[in-house]
């Protein structure tokens, strides 16, 4: 058993090392098209990981993640186009504004449960879209051309995407290796039981929500730097969250590897369906539904069923002893 564990550990590190070398060196040997494809994969992976952190690990199924994509995109646009400051300051502003906005809406939406929470997050994003369409400060519904994108090479854009993707991935790995991560999974599985065992529900939800919001906002800045144009109906469009859900569901919710696989499949399918823009989201939706029926746990679920695979070494069972001790009477009462 120890020999098998040691072999798996070696395979894991070799796989990660090879992936790191390939990704870092990609712009120096890959063509422009390949670099662009991987730029998109890394960006979508980042937002997929953040949605999966909320829904797959904390049980907070949100349909309003596009609010932070839009805030991130507009932060970049205001910094680079209106204030004429270095575009990278837009990433910092995006994180700050996303966290502040998440704090503001956390009080009402965390008072909602299950489907009401999901609907509540979607309504917040829709309200934000309408507000931006009527706000003169952000140029109403006209939006902005982000000219800073013209000064960035394909290689530069790739490394921005690589940085955002790496931040998202490292954040999830560190969270899941911590006691806080165990608390999130316990909360996802049974809120009442996890609270009895010492998990502070509101604080755990809030911290997870703030982390996800901040990184999603930064990813939104990078996405719109790559797209080079933003307006409210696009920046706050539900398509962003649909993309995140597709990525997590296809790849496998509740796994780190799932959004990586899901992002690869999503970007490739979007490229193949480029000439069918009117039907692309419908086709992707049908694929997602079929996948849910055939493999509810996604591709990683199928892989884990055949082999106990864990690329990032974070697979842990929720052990109640990891939480704050409680008296025997409380356990008996449960």
Note down, in words, how this protein is organized.
- The protein is mainly α and about 325 residues long.
- The chain has a domain of about 210 residues.
- About 75% of the residues lie in helices and about 0% in strands.
- The chain has 15 helices and 2 strands.
- It has a two-stranded antiparallel sheet.
- The longest helix has 28 residues.
- The radius of gyration is 20 Å and the shape is globular.
Approximately how much helix is present in the residues? over 70%
**Largest sheet, described in full?**
2 strands, antiparallel
How many helical elements? 15
Strand portion? under 5%
Order of helices and strands: HHHHHEHHHHEHHHHHH
Strand order of the largest sheet: 1-2
Please give the radius of gyration in angstroms: 20 Å
Structural class: mainly alpha
Q: What distance separates the N and C termini?
A: 36 Å
Mean pLDDT: 89
SS elements, strand count: 2
Structural shape:
globular
Task: Catalogue the unreliable spans.
Answer: 318-334
Keywords, separated by commas or semicolons:
15 helices; disordered C terminus; single chain; mainly alpha; 334 residues; 2 strands
Write the layout of secondary structure elements.
Blueprint: H1 2-29, H2 32-57, H3 66-82, H4 88-109, H5 115-133, E1 144-145, H6 154-176, H7 179-189, H8 191-196, H9 201-227, E2 229-230, H10 232-235, H11 239-251, H12 257-272, H13 277-294, H14 298-306, H15 328-333
Antiparallel strand pairs: 1-2
Helix pairs in contact: 2-6, 2-9, 2-11, 2-12, 3-4, 3-5, 3-9, 4-9, 6-9, 7-9, 11-12, 11-13, 11-14
């Amino acid at each position: 058993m120890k020999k098998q564990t040691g072999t798996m550990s070696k395979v894991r590190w070799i796989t990660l090392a090879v992936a790191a070398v390939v990704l870092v060196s990609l712009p120096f040997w890959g063509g422009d098209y390949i670099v662009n494809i991987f730029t998109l994969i890394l960006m979508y992976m980042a937002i997929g990981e953040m949605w999966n952190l909320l829904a797959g690990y904390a049980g907070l199924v949100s349909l309003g993640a596009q609010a932070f994509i839009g805030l991130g995109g507009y932060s970049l646009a205001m910094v680079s186009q209106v204030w004429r400051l270095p575009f990278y300051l837009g990433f910092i502003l995006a994180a700050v504004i996303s966290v502040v906005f998440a704090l503001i809406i956390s009080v009402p939406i965390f008072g909602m449960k299950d489907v009401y929470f999901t609907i509540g997050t979607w309504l917040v994003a829709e309200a934000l879209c309408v507000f931006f369409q009527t706000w003169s400060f952000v140029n109403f519904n006209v939006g902005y051309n982000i000219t800073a994108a013209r000064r960035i090479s394909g290689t530069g854009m790739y490394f921005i995407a690589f940085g955002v993707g790496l931040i998202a991935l490292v954040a999830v790995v560190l969270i899941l290796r911590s006691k806080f991560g165990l608390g999130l999974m316990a909360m996802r599985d049974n809120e009442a039981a996890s609270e009895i065992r010492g998990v502070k529900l509101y604080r755990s939800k809030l911290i997870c929500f703030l982390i996800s919001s901040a990184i999603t906002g930064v990813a939104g800045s990078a996405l719109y730097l790559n797209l080079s144009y933003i307006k409210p109906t696009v920046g706050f469009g539900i398509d962003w969250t649909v993309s995140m859900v597709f990525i997590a569901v296809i790849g496998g919710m509740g796994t780190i590897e799932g959004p990586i696989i899901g992002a690869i499949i999503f970007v490739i399918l979007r490229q193949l369906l480029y000439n069918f823009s009117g039907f692309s989201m419908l086709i992707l939706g049908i694929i997602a539904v079929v996948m849910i029926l055939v493999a509810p746990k996604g591709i990683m679920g199928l892989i884990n069923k055949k082999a106990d695979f864990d690329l990032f070494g974070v697979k842990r069972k929720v052990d109640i002893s990891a939480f704050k001790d409680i008296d025997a009477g409380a356990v008996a009462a449960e």
